[in-house]
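W.,

You were right to be curious about this one. When I first looked at the sequence I had no strong expectations either way, so I just let the prediction run and decided to look at it fresh. Below is the sequence, 304 residues in total, followed by the output.
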Amino acid sequence: MRVIFYSKPGCLLCDELKADLVEYQQELGFALDERNIELDSSGLGKISISDSGAGYRKRSLVVPSASLGGDCGRVTHCGRNECREELMSLDSPQGEVTAPSKASQTATGAILWFARHWLALFNTAWAVYFLTPFLPPIFLHFGWTAPAQAIYTVYSFLCHQLPSHSYFLFGPEWAPPRDELIAGGMSASTNLFAQRAFFGNEETGWKVALCQRDVAIYASIFLAGLVYARVRRSIRPMPFKIYALFLIPIALDGLTQTFGWRESNWWLRTVTGVLFGAATVFLAYPYVDQAMEEVIEDELLRNG
């Protein structure tokens, strides 16, 4: 077996991979043909050996593929152990290539579909997640108690649902103060479970199943995801130092309220939630994009 290894002068990753290949050469007995990718144009477009700057390291080599009549046409991006396993799998006496099973083809298709459409799926999921809590007030307004109760119950595991921190629909105010809620029927005790059990009534309106801050966070994640879809090819991940600045407002507002030093209000919860949610998208989504692009590349190269 002959392995063609395209390298580039001054490439540290190339040097690392070459050292590994020399070690594997003694074990597996293949011929190693190193070529300068800057001088041999046949390697261009087939491989890349690079550090993306975002934590992803690619180490690539071209190895013979029996399906291509022995020509060097199979590409793999691999770490140390993966390269060795790839070489061992190709070093078979028969050199036969087994066609992938139907199940394997289906799985590959599903992986590729998800990797290509992950952003649309994420945006759809976030839209469903933050819009569904607005259904219980609508249901209760029309007297549909059972479906409203079901949604309240599901979201009770995800949010505190305190009435004084929630929006209300079909009432005189969309963010009624605590005194008005108590006058309308909410428990006046300090027991948070007793308070959260108040869903509202015709006098106060009906409570949204997510608190004001959570509505702001998840709505902004959805909206920022739509913006990211338009600019995803031209931006890099938000630096973590900048991201940390966006965390300060929500941390200050939430912690000072939790310790009883002050009481927040609906617009502070909304603003701090929006800053946190949008910043999280522009920190995390570029990394997800890079990972999905590598998944697509690896699956296409593996299945040729």
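Here's what jumped out at me. Strands lie at 2-7, 31-36, 50-51, 57-58, 60-64, 72-77, 166-169, 200-201, 205-211. And, maybe more interesting for your project: The first helix runs from residue 12 to 28.

Coffee later to discuss?

I.
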